[in-house]
Amino acid sequence: MSKKRILFIVNPISGHRDKKRFGESVANVLGDKNFAYDIVFTERAGHATDLATAAVGNYDIVAAVGGDGTLNEVAQGLLHSDTDMAVIPCGSGNGLARCLHLPRKTSDALRLLRKGKAERIDTATVNGRLFLSVAGIGLDAQTAHDFAQDPRRGFIPYAHYATSNYFHLKPETIRITFDGRKTLICSPMLVTFANSNQYGYNAIIAPHASLQDGLLDACILNRPPLPAIPAFVGMLMHGHLDRSRYLTEIQSAHITVERPCAGVVNIDGEPVMMEAVLEVKVVPQSLNIVVPTL
Question: Is the pLDDT of residue 17 over 70?
Answer without folding.
Answer: no
